Amino acid sequence: MNREAISAISHADHPIKAPLGDESVRALLARALPRGDERLLDLGCGSAEWLLRALEAHPGARAEGVDISTTGLAEARERAEERGVGERLELHQVPAADFKPEQPFDVVLSVGAVHAFGGLLPTVEAAGQHLAPGGRILVGDGFWQSAPSAEAIEMLGDSADLPGTLELLAAAGWTTVHGHVSTRRELDDYEWACWGNVASWVVDHPEDPDAAELLAFSSERFREWTRLYRDCWGFVTLILRRTPEALTPEALKPRP
Fold first, then answer.
1. Taking 70 as the threshold, does the pLDDT of residue 254 lie above it?
2. How many beta carbons lie within 10 A of that of residue 40, not counting itself?
3. Which of 249, 248, 240, 233 is nearest to 162 (CA)?
4. What CA–CA distance (Å, rounded) separates 106 from 34?
5. Which of 111, 131, 185, 188 is 20 to 30 A from 21 (CA-CA)?
C-alpha cells in the first residue's frame, strides 16, 4: 500500500495531521487572523483542513493551498464544497518550494510539514518570501522536551529544545507573538489515532494482501512511540512576525 493510502487511513479521525486538538486549532487561527478578512497560504496543505477551518470561522477570508498530493488536493476540493467554502479556496498541485504566487499573503501556514523545506528555519524563510508586510507565519514543528536517545535522534532528526527553538527564530529575524505547546493529551491522542486506525483497518481487512505488512507497520510505530520518543518529544505551533529591522540583534549591537 502506498504512503498516501496509509496516511489517509491513519488520519481518518485526525484530519489536522498534527498533535493539536480542535480548540487549540481554533484559538491559533483566531490569533493568526485578527481581522478576519486575511488572505491565507498553506505550504504543504494536504487535505487543507487548516484552511477549511479558517474559512469556515472567517467568512471574509480567502485561502490558497499548495501540495503535490493528488489524493489530498482532491479530498480538499470535495470537503471545501461540502462545507460551503469552495469559492474562497484555490488549490495548486506543485512542490511547495516551486510555488510562485501573484501577490503576497497576510498569513502563511506550514504545520507539521517542515520536511518539505528541510527543517524549521528553511520553512520559515520560504514562508517569509510569500508574506505581506505586517503578516504572520503560523508554523508547527517538533522539539525535544528532554534529552533524547541516539536512536530517537536518528529517527526524528536533531531538533532543538523549546528555548533553543525560540532563540533560533529570533536570531533569524522573527519575533514570536503567540504559541501553543501540545499537551500530553494532544500528543497521545494523535499517536493513538494514527497507528490505532491502521491496526483497526487491518483487523477489518484481514484478507487484504497488504494486511500483514500494515499490521507490522502499526506495531513498529507503536513501539517507536512508546519506547523511543513519547517521553522526550514535543510539538509547538508558533505565530511569528518579522522583527523590525531596527530591532534585530545585528542592528542593536553597540557601534564602535
1. no
2. 28
3. 233
4. 11
5. 131
Joined together, the cell numbers standing for residue 145 give 522536551
Q: Given this model, what pLDDT does residue 112 score? A: 87
**Residue-wise pLDDT tens digits, 158-192:** 899 999 999 999 999 999 999 999 999 999 999 99
List strand residue ranges (DSSP E) for the chain, in order.
39-43, 62-67, 89-93, 105-111, 131-144, 174-181, 233-242
What tens digit of pLDDT does each residue of 26-73 get?
Answer: 999 999 999 999 999 999 999 999 999 999 999 999 999 999 999 999
DSSP state of 38: -
- Size of the chain in residues: 256
Contact between 132 and 48 (Cβ < 8 Å): no
Here the cell at position 52 is 477549511
Backbone angles phi, psi at 14, to 5 degrees: -145, 70
Query: Where in 166-219 does DSSP place strands (E)?
Result: 174-181
Average pLDDT, the chain: 94
Of 64, 247, 59, nearest to 170 by C-alpha is 247
Which residues does residue 237 pair with via DSSP β-bridges, in sequence order? Answer: 140, 180
